[in-house]
Specification:
By secondary structure, the chain is of the alpha+beta class. The chain has helices spanning about 20-30, 40-45, 90-100, 100-125, 135-140, 145, 165-170, 230-250, 300-310; strands at about 5, 10-15, 15-20, 35-40, 55-60, 70-80, 185, 190-195, 200-205, 205-215, 220-225, 260-270, 270-275, 280-285, 290-295. About 35% of the residues lie in helices and about 25% in strands. Strand 14 (about 280-285) and strand 15 (about 290-295) form a beta hairpin.
C-alpha cells in the first residue's frame, strides 16, 4: 500500500469527515507508490523539528486531480537508510513512458544519421576557410535544434566531437559561456544514480555530456540525460541524480549560499529546479532533461557561477 498524509481542518458532517484537507490527503494517497509514505509540505513543516528518526526526501511538485495549486511532496524515509532510492512506482511509469517512444526514436534515427554525417564531413576538413566553427555555429543556426540526439554507449567508435547530440546540447548552453572551449566529457565525469531496485550505482544515461573549462580551476559540465523524447521521463533521471548526490554527501535541505553545502529549490523568472550547492554544485531544470554541474577547488566559486550564469530557461 501507498500512504498519503496531509494536515488541515476538517468537519464532521452528516456525510462524514469532509474538507479540502481530506481531499488533498486522498489525492496524495492516490499518487503514492506502493511501499512509500508521501506527505505534503504542510506535514513536513509541522513535524520536521521533532521527528529525529526520519528524513523527508523531496519528490517535487505535483499537480493533483481537483486541486488548483501544485502540491510539494516529500517521501518519508528511515533516517538511518544509506541512500535515497527513487520511488519504485515512479520508475516503473518512467520505463513504460520510455518504451512507448521507441517507435518515434526509430523514425528519427535516419534524420540523426544524415545530420551527423554532414556534421562529421564538415569537421573532417570540409569547412571553407574563414567559416565559423561548427561549435560556435550551433547557437546561430537551426541545425542543432533539428537534429535528433544520437544514442551513446553503442558498440563501435564514437563520432568526432561534436556529434549531432553534442551540437544540440551546445546550442542550449548559457549565452555567457564560451562554447568553443567545450569538449566531450569523459565517462568517469558523468554523475551516477542508483539503479532500479538494485544496490550500487550506475552512470546517468546521457545522449551528450560536455566539459567546459572556465579558467581559474573552474570546470562546468552539462549533460543531456536519457535517450527518450518525453522530457518527463528524462527529467526523473536528473532529479534522481541530484537526490542521490545529496544523500551520499549527507547535505541537509537548507538555503544555499556561496560556501554552504545544501539541497534546495532554485527559481529565476520562469526557470526553476533542484540544486545541491557546494564546491561541486549540481542542479536540474524543471521541464527539461538538462543536468548541470560546476566544480572548483576554490570555496564558493562553483555556486557563484551557477547563481550568476546557469539559472536560465533550459528550453
Amino acid at each position: 500500500a501507498g500512504v498519503g498524509i496531509h494536515a488541515g481542518e476538517a468537519e464532521d458532517s452528516d456525510e462524514g469527515i469532509v474538507s479540502s484537507a481530506v481531499n488533498i490527503a486522498a489525492r496524495i494517497c492516490a499518487v503514492a507508490p506502493a511501499g512509500e509514505i508521501l506527505v505534503s509540505e504542510t506535514v513536513r513543516a509541522l513535524t520536521r523539528s521533532y521527528l529525529r528518526d526520519v528524513r523527508f526526501v523531496p519528490r517535487g511538485q505535483r499537480r493533483l486531480k481537483g486541486i488548483s495549486e501544485p502540491v510539494r511532496l516529500y517521501a518519508v524515509e528511515d533516517a538511518g537508510a544509506e541512500r535515497i532510492t527513487p520511488p519504485p512506482g515512479r520508475r516503473r511509469r518512467v520505463a513504460l513512458i520510455a518504451a512507448s517512444t521507441l517507435a518515434l526514436v526509430a523514425a528519427t534515427v535516419a534524420i540523426a544519421y544524415v545530420g551527423g554525417a554532414l556534421t562529421r564531413e564538415g569537421l573532417a576538413g570540409q569547412v571553407p576557410p574563414g567559416s565559423p566553427s561548427p561549435i560556435a555555429s550551433a547557437r546561430n543556426t537551426s541545425m542543432a535544434s533539428s537534429l535528433a540526439p544520437e544514442a551513446t554507449g553503442s558498440a563501435g567508435p564514437r563520432a568526432p566531437f561534436p556529434d549531432a547530440a553534442e551540437l544540440q546540447l551546445l546550442a542550449r548552453l548559457p549565452s555567457t559561456m564560451s562554447v568553443d572551449s567545450c569538449v566531450r566529457a569523459d565517462e568517469d565525469e558523468v554523475p551516477s544514480i542508483p539503479p532500479f531496485h538494485e544496490p550500487g550505482l550506475v552512470p546517468l544515461p546521457v545522449s551528450a555530456a560536455l566539459r567546459c573549462p572556465m579558467g581559474s580551476g573552474l570546470s562546468v559540465f552539462f549533460y543531456a540525460a536519457g535517450r527518450c523524447e518525453l522530457v518527463t521521463a528524462c527529467r526523473s533521471e536528473t532529479e534522481t541524480a541530484v537526490f542521490s548526490i545529496a544523500s551520499r554527501r549527507g547535505v541537509p535541505e537548507a538555503e544555499c549560499a556561496p560556501e554552504v553545502a545544501a539541497l534546495a529549490r532554485w527559481e529565476f523568472g520562469d526557470a526553476r529546479g533542484w540544486v545541491v550547492c557546494g564546491d561541486d554544485t549540481v542542479w536540474t531544470y524543471d521541464d527539461s532533461n538538462l543536468l548541470g554541474r560546476a566544480s572548483s577547488e576554490r570555496p564558493g566559486v562553483a555556486y557563484r557561477w551557477f547563481h550568476e550564469n546557469a539559472r536560465f530557461p533550459a528550453e
